[in-house]
Specification:
Length: about 700
């Protein structure tokens, strides 16, 4: 903050003059070195007695979010736009300019310049010209720290700028105590990192970027003088938001002061004064709606990261503390977002449905074995901008359409849930070769009086009887997506086991009806295997990633690393994984999942699939997956995975579940997801899936 330049009340200055009158008379004739000693040895206090914030600064800084390359900036979060830099990262002319502008005797006093204070008091009491403050850089630093200290109450922070004799004396006492321990360079560095330069920029790093789009190390003499001049009255002098002519006049004053201090020559000052004011104003992005230009699709991932952050105890005991840590803690966050995979996912999502389409294709990509979220795309702009009448979520929305939450329960995933039935059966000891003569319609034990029931029983049917009916095992039952086979299989192991398996792999029931069914009546939820519960692309991709990782479930993770301003790593970036399936069970499920995508199982039992184009798109690279069509093609889903990535895409209308997307879009969804998988594995070593044991494969001989 600037020195005390705001108009002081006459009463305050008279009182302060009276308190310090004796000091002024006593020291007016003393040499500078004796004056310094007087200040340092006075009863103004010790360094150890200083508030913690002055001894160990906790000044607010913005946090940076980068993509997984550690270089691509996604956005920043801040309440106060500032970021600390070391003194050697600040141009020498900037250091010289701020001293000349604010405290010419900085290197001569001991924290409180009594001569300067005396001059200011005389000028203010007598009304002789412009009002002066007499605050040194050290005193200004004290004031800035105390008024921004997050550890203090709002009342305590406000007291740091009160116009009272007590506050001024405390400021002097704290400043002299600081100078007993810290070097002048340390104090100057701290000051330059906290001073307000106007236009929302706190600290020299933010100011250099805000006004000139450069680092403080690159500042020229003219630029440094301009910035130094802003500190006295940041809003009035700001050439962006205030008075450019006033800023130039103030720049000239600083340059003249630099000549008087010997920092520059008169010729250098004249040349700098002649330079035209050339600004390159840049606005630092703040929050998820201000991601890098042209990448508003990154906002959905950013929002997911922020929601994750608010659940992490490492950043505070409460949600409010964690939010404050994100906006004031100065963290460097390397996220898991892969810009290339994200770009492909976004392109594919918008190729299927445009931004204005009422239907959406949310896509999520997850890394098996770590749970790191690599991409989150949807054909919507992450924006608070208004939408046309009647279009609640298009083309702009900040709702979590990909990850779920708030009012977003998710979408029916159809036959992709057959994976959970197969896993439950394999875990129960039933091999892949478990056979059943699958009929066109299967009367079940579950009561159902609705249309299409069979004598009061739920009676599911195969979508394509000619292609699906007949003797099936898990391989071709999964490959051809035979409803009656999997409903029968779920009956054999118990629907409650299937529901439990889905939950074990991370499927969350956000819809109240689904949650109630799972908790109270899972044993009668026969239709669960057909994907009637709502889920999200992220949950689904991560569940399949668990199978790709041979049974190791990892909690979805949006970060690679989080580093505090001190350089210390915060222990939140490591994957949180646990084994939830026997590896052989996962391998067996994967073997069957080769069938839908047009590849062959290790036991040669694939004989048809619903997504055979995937094999061609992946150029024969080992891949597995599953399609899913909910009843009457209300939604269309595809999940594809390799050992390195799992990707899920779900076509649906987020605002109207009765707007059925239709079967025609299925091929496009399959193609979109497969191309995201291809981008994710391009350039990586080809990894094959491990074949399951003969015991879990069983005897695939069909009965004659």
């Amino acid at each position: 903050m600037a020195p005390l330049r705001s108009p002081l009340s006459r009463l305050f200055t008279v009182l302060l003059a009276g308190v310090l009158a004796g000091l002024v008379l006593a020291v007016a004739a003393l040499p500078g070195n004796l004056l310094l000693g007087f200040a340092a040895k006075s009863a103004f206090g010790s360094y150890e007695a200083l508030p913690e914030a002055l001894r160990t600064p906790a000044t607010p800084q913005r946090s940076y979010l980068y993509a997984n390359d550690g270089k691509t900036l996604i956005t920043t979060f801040y309440d106060v736009n500032r970021s600390d830099v070391a003194l050697d990262e600040i141009a020498p002319v900037m250091r010289q300019a701020i001293v000349a502008a604010e405290d010419r005797r900085f290197y001569d006093h001991g924290g409180a310049d009594l001569r300067g204070l005396a001059r200011a008091l005389v000028a203010n009491v007598t009304g002789g010209g412009t009002e002066q403050g007499g605050s040194t850089l050290t005193m200004q630093y004290v004031r800035n720290v105390l008024k921004t200290d997050p550890g203090r109450t709002a009342e305590e922070r406000a007291a740091a700028t009160e116009q009272t004799v007590g506050r001024k004396l405390q400021e002097i006492r704290y400043a002299t105590a600081l100078e007993q321990r810290l070097s002048k360079d340390e104090i100057l560095n701290r000051y330059l990192n906290i001073a307000y330069f106007g236009s929302g920029a706190y600290g020299i790093a933010a100011a250099s970027q805000r006004y000139f789009a450069k680092s403080p190390a690159e500042l020229t003499l003219a630029e440094a003088a301009l910035l130094a001049g802003l500190v006295q009255s940041p809003e009035a002098y700001s050439p962006i938001d205030g008075d450019a002519d006033a800023a130039l006049a103030r720049r000239a004053y600083v340059l003249d002061s630099m000549v008087e201090t010997g920092a520059i020559s008169a010729e250098q000052a004249a040349q700098a004064k002649a330079e035209k004011l050339t600004l390159h104003p840049t606005a630092q992005p703040n929050g998820c709606t201000a991601v890098a230009e042209g990448h508003d699709d990154w906002g959905f991932f950013c929002d997911y990261l922020r929601r994750w952050w608010l659940t992490q105890p490492a950043f505070g005991a409460t949600v409010q503390e964690r939010e404050q840590a994100l906006r004031r803690g100065g963290y460097t966050v390397v996220t898991s977002l892969d810009p290339q995979i994200q770009a492909t996912a976004q392109q594919q999502a918008t190729d299927v449905y445009g931004y204005g389409n009422k239907r959406a294709l949310p896509i999520a990509a997850v890394e098996p074995g770590t749970g790191r979220v690599l991409a989150m795309a949807v054909n919507r702009h992450y924006s608070l901008d208004a939408n046309p009448d009647g279009q609640a979520n298009r083309p702009n929305t900040v709702n979590p359409l990909i990850s779920g939450g708030d009012s977003v329960d998710g979408y029916q995933a159809g036959s992709t849930f057959k994976l959970f039935t197969m896993l439950a059966a394999l875990e129960a000891g039933k091999p892949l070769a478990t056979g059943f003569e699958a009929p066109s319609r299967l009367p079940t034990r579950y009561a159902d009086e609705g249309e299409g029931s069979c004598d009061g029983r739920w009676c599911p049917a195969n979508a394509n009887p000619e292609w699906m009916d007949g003797y099936r095992m898990m391989w071709d039952g999964f490959g051809r997506s035979v409803n009656t086979y999997f409903v029968w299989l779920a009956e054999q192991v118990g629907p409650e086991k299937v529901v439990e398996m889905a939950q074990r792999l991370g499927i969350t029931f956000r819809a109240d009806a689904d949650a109630a069914f799972a908790e109270h009546d899972a044993a009668n939820w026969g239709s669960f295997t057909l994907g009637v519960a709502a889920t999200t692309p992220l949950d689904l991709a991560n569940a399949y990633a668990t199978v790709a990782a041979e049974g190791t479930y990892c909690t979805p993770l949006p970060v690679v690393s989080v580093t505090a301003p001190s350089g210390e790593r915060v222990p939140v970036g490591d994957p949180s994984c646990r084994r939830v399936l026997d590896a052989d069970v996962a391998r067996a499920a994967t073997d069957a999942a080769r069938c839908p995508v047009g590849q062959q199982s290790a036991y040669g039992q694939c004989n048809g699939g619903t997504a055979t184009s995937v094999n061609r798109i992946l150029d024969g690279r080992p891949v597995a997956g599953k399609t899913g069509s909910s009843e009457r093609n209300a939604t269309e889903t595809f999940v594809g995975f390799t050992p390195q990535v799992a990707v899920a895409g779900m076509a649906a209308n987020p605002d109207d579940p009765n707007d059925f997307v239709g079967a025609a879009v299925q091929a496009k969804v399959i193609d979109a997801v497969a191309r995201v998988v291809k981008t994710a594995v391009d350039g990586k070593p080809v990894r094959d899936f491990t074949a399951p044991s003969r015991e879990l494969a069983g005897d695939p001989q069909r009965p004659r």
